[in-house]
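Pilot study result, target chain (179 residues):
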Amino acid sequence: LLNQGRAMEALTRFKEGLEVAISINARPLVGEIFLGMAVAYRENTQSPGWEVSRICAQNAHDLGEELGTAGLITMGLTSLALAELRLERPDEALRLSTRAVSYLKGGKLAGVRTEEIWYNHAQVLQALGRSADAREALDRARGLVEARASRLNNDALADGFLSRVTLNRRIREHAAILP
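Predicted structure:
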């Protein structure tokens, strides 16, 4: 639903899923749902949504810390970074985003979309006026997305992956306009 621009409908589903996940004590799933809710609230262009996004991302991160799940920690950090950026706290956004990127240096993490971490980092760097660093991070994100698309055996699937998945489309659009 998020990839279709239906954030409010996605939020309804996330809330329903959260109730079930909590009732059966599926804690890793609770963290993933909080991450999805953070994205959905972040899609809201008004400040109250950004604050709720920050809270959801913080919950996911904290649960990741408690469970010792590096993927959940990392995705929580990158989501927190974007929320802080939207809330006009760029220094905190950079601190969080840099921490998220540092997790990538340890190798591949389960449940982590590496391209999302690099893309979010690029947005933070660009907001701070660090264009060359932002370009480098964005190129990494774009390279990861295009590499994944190239592994698909069908051109129509690859085109859909690049154009219909919101994150992938945004990465490519941003890469086309960033100097």
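One observation from the pilot: DSSP finds nine helices and no strands in the chain. A full batch analysis is planned for the follow-on phase.
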